Amino acid sequence: MTTRAVFGSYVLQHGDGVQSVLRDHWVLIEGSRIAAVTPSRPTADEVHDRPGRFVLPGLMNLHNHCFSEQVARTHTEDGNGRKNNKSIVYTILMPLSRRGIEILSREERMAIARLGILQLLKGGATTVMEPFRAGIPEMFDAAAEMGIRFYGAPYLFSTSNAQAGTDGVVRYAGDDGAADLAIWKALHAKWHGHSDGRLQVTMSPHATDTCGPDFLRECAAIARALGVPITTHVAQGQDEVATIKARYQGRTPAEYLDWLGLLAPDLLAAHCIASSDDDLALMAARGVTVLNCPRVFARGGSTAAFSRFAGAGIRTVIGTDGYNLDLLGEMNAASLISKISSGRADVADSPALIDAVTASAAAAIGRPDLGRLAPGATADITVVDMSDPMLQPIHDPRRGLIALANRANIDLVIVDGDLRVAGGRYQGADEAAIAAKGAAAVHKIWDLPEARAAFAS
Ligand SMILES: [Zn+2]
Fold this sequence. Notes:
The chain has 17 helices and 20 strands. The protein has 457 residues and is of the alpha/beta class. Strands 1, 2, 3, 4, 5, 17, 18, 19 and 20 form a 9-stranded mixed beta sheet that branches. It is globular, with a radius of gyration of 21 Å. The mean pLDDT is 95. Bound molecules: zinc ion. Zinc ion binds at residues 63, 65, 233, 270, 321.
């Protein structure tokens, strides 16, 4: 069994739910477990003893899309491709990823999956929850190969080709989703618990406006029988709210899910930016987790403020939504966007944001062995190099982490006791080759006539 010792000038602790920072401690790893957090230098096979490091529980990025956002990268900034400043989810991201999956070979889909996972790991994440089209099951292969902890969430739809009309209303052909459920069950049978439990399969009905009532009830029943979390997109915009109200007797998306029995502690609800204050109170009462991804909405001119959800008493965690896979950068944005939108400097403070990607995120997926550095915990660890001149001087390392650090400061990423990133570099393969192959595959999608048309509008 390999042992590793990592010195931290700062080591994050969660004791009795209270977060603190130890100075000048070692974290000793034995195999895939943390053996000790100690002030004295342990003996180990591998010793990382450079000062200035901040040792954190592995950061958890609980909402990301490696594939569907890559097809939009650097095309859809600055309003490009957006009609009347509206969402591009149903007009660009979903149709183009669907086409892309059809035209690419398995090896090309693998290349895009590898590039995304590379970016997640280099962005400091040890765990990702990744909803993606079931047509790219290679996400699981790439996660198994590259060593990230992967909560794969193959989408389920009442129909696999939901699209918004010019009125913004999403229509779907039926209300069965039987084919998607069969695919999901096959992926669950193949991958759930794979790689010593590192791969997990999450139930992921796509969204309130693409999944009908009976289908959502069935998804929830299956998830609960299997004991897996449920994640879905909720209230991503006002069009969705209007659609759900018109379809289901005036219910908001949150009320729709509550009616079906989905608003519960096992639900991770992405975005919720068009939820009313009453909706947020309902979600808080039901123990739902909100997945907050502030930067992807900032791109479109919308405010997704961490503090609005956390302030309503909802467990709120942070994801990158595939837009920019720098989780520290996303936390910085969560801080600033919360402060701007509330007009208050004291909201979304650094300990709360750090909790959102460690202890709180672990609780959201029912993993008390993750999100903390303590003897017996699983050895998922993210180490940030705070010695960078850009971060000096440091009085409070947690504030430094949120206000000043970003992905360039990620030093070590350890998953299940294995070193995946060291000195900021991925250890499993050549980064440049992964990037080149992934980008080449995305370019094939960009060369499609429908992509050219979408991006030219
Ligand atoms: Zn999403």
